[in-house]
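request received
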Amino acid sequence: MKTSFVLGALTVAGLAAGAAAAGTLDDVKARGTLNCGVSTGLVGFAAPNASGEWEGFDVGLCRAVAAAVLGDSNAVEFIPTTGKTRFTALASGEVDLLARNTTWTFSRDVDLKFEFTGVNYYDGQGFMVPTELGVSSAKELDGATVCIQTGTTTELNLADFFRSNNMNYEPVPIETNAEAQQQYLAGACDVYTTDASGLAATRATFENPGAHVVLPEIISKEPLGPLVRHGDNNWGDIVRWTLNALITAEELGVTSANMAEMASGTNNPEINRLLGTEGTLGEMLGLDAEWAQRALAVGGNYGELFEANIGASTPIGLARGLNAQWKNGGLLYSPPFR
Amino acid sequence: MSDTSFVRQEMLSEQPAPASSVGFLGWIKNNLFSTWFNSILTVIALGFVWYILAGVLPWTFLSVWNAGSLSECREIARQVWGESHGHACWAVINDRWIQLLFGFYPSHLYWRPILAFVLLGFALAPVLFPQSSRKLLILSGLYPFILPWLMWGGSIWSPIMALIGFVMGYLAIKNLSERIGQLGAIFSSIFAAFLWWLLIGPVFVDLLSANIPIALESVASRDFGGFVLALLIGIVAIVCSLPIGIILALGRQSDLIIVKAFSVAFIEFIRGVPLITLLFVASLLLNLFLPPGTEFDIILRVMIMVTLFSSAYMAEVIRGGLAALPKGQYEGADSLGLDYWQAQRLIIMPQALKVSIPGIVSTFIGLFKDTTLVSIIGLMDPLGLSQGIRANAEWNGIYWELFAFIALLFFVVCFSMSRYSMYLERKLQTDHR
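response:
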């Protein structure tokens, strides 16, 4: 009786504390820094440079949100999270925003009580094999040994793919991407499978990239996006619309170069609404009118961020593919700023 | 004339031993080729050593030191050595060694961790080497308060107030043990110290920091990383685990049932659980239990867990030392009329610790190496940083060089610990002769 009372009291206290901490925006403003969960290191998406500053595509989103909310793209505390710690870090309030190439799935959204605020990279699982193997399709991989990172969705996708095609495979479980590269190059496995972006980045590091080929099949949908906790819709809106602002800016041709000029007023009302010279969109978010301008000033629009971190001009050299604007045959389609 | 056969009249002069049994050749013959079986083993072993060295040495020494990226490294290697493979790219170490040592610690404050570790040397000197000046013991006593202040910065008054808390505890124990007995004195000293730390101290800290602001620039725990983080966790855990371990070991042998039960439960529970589980508890479970928004530093949580973990092992090592003492030592102490703590301090512990030195040091070494596990919960120790470094476009694909460098760092520390323990053993002559 007594124990249950204590437990009940604790639960009430926990709920009260949860309710009290609902205002993430206020917390962030009071703290003066945004706690952003990123990967401990993923090529092109998040990595510390030689002077200890974080760089990458996911990092760019964190900085954009920080600039929109706090006016300073450096007011971000980057908190490296592993695949195992990332969700607890977000659920416990250690981070305000998780931008860690996390796949948007039903159970993560619903069961883990998170809110995915959009997709900043459409990925999919692919296969890489040595050219000398003479394989041209993933359907020919029956009996292959496959290097696979454990504890990820890729592991489950792989099992599904082979089962639905009535093929067998021998898994070689590995922990990190770096280890996978070594194992694959040493011939411990015939095939390396992970997200296609990761395969491209890995292949680019090989001494002889031409000796390896990424197979055309993409066996899964991996929409990677930023996520926040359930229950704080205002904060979710800020993250969602910061991402949408980056995407819309590219669609409308607003870049970091011409933004200052456009901010003085244009003929296009949507650009004006986006940049805050018309309407009260920023106010509705609980921010000021220039929030999107500041977000865009950090690393430019979505396309600029893409090109600078993972695009064709970088060693990773990813094509836009699915991540092109909808007008160019991609999937990027931001709701209108109205 | 005479048929007397030859009789030697004088001693033959000494001849040098045959060349095959002395000097280098003799050594080889005796040690490497003494029988046909040993000869075969020698040849096989030499072949194996040659095979390893032929791979490792060119890789290590025919290497590139100055390059901006892995591909540049490969380009330089191709120009210098042609198409041959297997040249290390130490350029990554050249580029990132400062980061591997200091993590994200602000670069204009590097003097602080360096000073902290130099002071550590001085603080440890009187403990480790009896011939050094006794006055350094003052530094050893103050060091636990200097270390956090140097590493984390902030107001000087917090460590001073923490120190005063210990002084209060000490005063309480000293003045009260006559009046209310030893156990009561211990409890009231703990009470006095906590009263000071939790209620009175913070008030003074605020007051003094406002009026006499002496402070170092604060450094957030998140900025700790690299080898400094490993050393910090290692040192804190090593320093704290020894006294806790001693207390637990004594508790386990105690006649007081509650103390004994608690010690046994603690030791057996902690030893029955892998360290990585405790680290996950520190990083994940505690996060969920504590109310949202609680700022309980992750590095502090990890330090506490690692300390608890090693204390349990330490307690068992020391218990081994206690068990090795003949019963006569305890009886002798009793017959001299010493009380429990005097007996422990003057007779039992010096001998028990002496016996357990190898065990203690090997626990320390194991503990120090275990600090690399924190990379699994996302702390940027050298191993965690190596993953971050590989995630840069310019160094993606580099592998062994980073591990080799980290291994070297750890080897230096662990090897010195092991050498020190051998020196200590020789000096103290732990065997009962």
